[in-house]
Amino acid sequence: MRVVKSISEIHTLSRDAHARGRSLALVPTMGGLHEGHISLIRQAKRQCDVVIVSIFVNPKQFDSPKDLTEYPRDLSRDLEILEPLRIDAVFAPSEKEMYPEGFSTTVVPGDVAKQFEGEFRPGHFTGVATAVLELFNIIRPDLAYFGQKDFQQSLVVRRLVEDLNLDVRLVICPTVRDKDGLAISSRNSRLNPEERKAATVLHRSLRHAEQLAHGGESLASKLVAAIREVFAGEPLARLEYAAVVEPHSLEPTERVTSGCVALVAARVGAVRLIDNLILGPAGASPETLLQLALKTRHILDAGGLIPGFETESTRLRIAACRECAAIPTILLPPREFLSGYVTTYYPDRGAPRIAVIGRDAPLSPSNFLCAELKLFPNLETLVVLGDDAYLQFQRHLLERAPSGFKPLDELLQPQGWAREEVRIPTLTERLLKVFYCYHPTLGYKRSPSIAPFLA
Ligand code: AMP
Predict the structure, then answer these.
(1) Ligand 1 centre and the CA of 183: distance in Å?
(2) Which helix (H) or strand (E) holds 71?
(3) Contact partners, residue 355, CB within 8 Å, separation at least 6
(4) Which residue in 10, 302, 317, 395 has the fewest CB atoms around it within 10 Å?
(5) What is the pTM of this model?
(6) CA distance 242 to 224
(7) Is the CB of 176 under 6 A from ligand 1?
(8) What is the pLDDT of residues 17-33, one digit of tens each?
(9) Residues designated catalytic
(10) What is the rounded distance in angstroms from the CA atom of residue 166 to the CA atom of residue 189?
(11) What single string gives the DSSP state of each residue in 171-209?
């Protein structure tokens, strides 16, 4: 393991790796290494030939001089931790190396940096983005690893990469926690024993919100209130913010769906801590949850967007919702109906007999649904999941006036699902079986399995 302090030396190392056709990973850290960092490094080792860990306590991202002074710095301890991990190099530049005299450029991120951490730590993300861009330019990694623990940061970096067309892929790794749930952080070492105990309130409050969501609570405001209530019972902690947000914009959401993120920040004693939890189906793995939260944008950017239809997020939500009773319907071939991916998933469009319509976007004035369904000439059964799909289906495919159909909730009583046979002349001359169910995403009531009817 080489310990490199100069930009020119690490640059050469990186250039050599690329010249030999080896993939290069960068794990940026501020030192004070712990299991969270180690998980990122292990992941990088699994995926890349050459792994560089940077250790740089970036003064530009500290809004408080006291916080900067008190930030743990112990390079020899960090090197001891890194030694057995068999990485290729540690890049530990001085402040002067990164920001020599005359350095005067800053990278100012946009909207995703404005709220939450951006609000409570003015200038923080500008400092992060400036340092990260410089590190990317120095090291030119193929892949760079960040932790979910700093969810907003990972989003700021994602925007940086996308907006400036940086040639690097980001890998976001799940949060590593202590046994009692506290997210591991270099700052935890500054907590006294009492504060350390109190600090679990971040995770406890998030779990409480998650339990409510799993129990069917779909209003974000209720989850936020529940988080606040848990904090109210912990006198050593002072909540700074609690919110449930859309994963890509960080806009507070009204209705909770899979992939939404609950964020909290609090001061415990003098130490400021943050944590977050991605809401999703009970029992989903941390990786699946991350996928749910992060995937959509990427797919949309890749051109997979059908107007008014978030195909990939719907697919992921449905695929990940394994505990839901409605899922067996989706596991039947075809697994789901996603016209954006028709050619990939259904090269033989004559094969699918069942289409599952799980649209959760608000009603679009244009009717894409019929055109999408028409792509499959042999459909016999349609499964309509959730309110939005139901409304769209009734209005645009069955051409029923709002007074001509019941609200979904009423229709699905008492057994949790309903069926009818319909003829949709714009689609096919045949009679189609239609099943209506609740949407299987988080926060919706569950419908029992209708698999036997579809077999
Ligand atoms: P830091 O040294 O705090 O700047 O963190 C360096 C990287 O490690 C960032 O991408 C963090 O999100 C990530 N990280 C920090 N703590 C954890 C944790 N407990 N689990 C996973 N990743 C983490």
Answers:
(1) 10
(2) none
(3) 334, 337, 373, 376, 379, 381, 382, 383
(4) 302
(5) 0.71
(6) 6
(7) yes
(8) 999 989 999 999 999 99
(9) 37
(10) 35
(11) EEEPPPB-TTSPBP-GGGGGS-HHHHHHTTHHHHHHHHH
Please give the Cα distance from 113 to 83 (Å, whole number). 35
Compute the distance from residue 422 Cα to the ligand 1 centre, in Å: 54
Task: In whole angstroms, give the CA distance from residue 235 to residue 195.
Answer: 10
CA distances to 152, 207, 241, 270, 442 from 227, in Å: 19, 9, 10, 21, 18
Name the band, by pLDDT with cuts 50, 70 and 90, for residue 349. Answer: low
Q: What is the pLDDT of residues 110-142, one digit of tens each?
A: 999 999 999 999 999 999 999 999 999 999 999
Q: Specify whether the CB–CB gap between 325 and 449 falls below 8 A.
A: yes
Q: Is 336 in the pocket of ligand 1 (CB under 6 A)?
A: no
User: Cα–Cα distance between 350 and 355 in angstroms, integer?
Assistant: 12
Cα distance between residue 283 and residue 241, in whole Å: 27
Tokens of 227: 């988080």
- Tell me if 186 CB under 6 Å of ligand 1: yes
Q: Which of 275, 247, 243, 242 is nearest to 259 (CA)?
A: 247
pLDDT digits over 417-443, tens only? 899 999 988 888 889 999 888 876 544
Residue 274, token pair as written in the block: 């943050």
DSSP of 258-323, one letter per residue? TT-EEEEEEEETTEEEEEEEE--STT--HHHHHHHHHHHHHHIIIIIPBTTB-HHHHHHHHHH-TT
- Residue whose entry in the numeric block shows the structure tokens 């640059």: 11
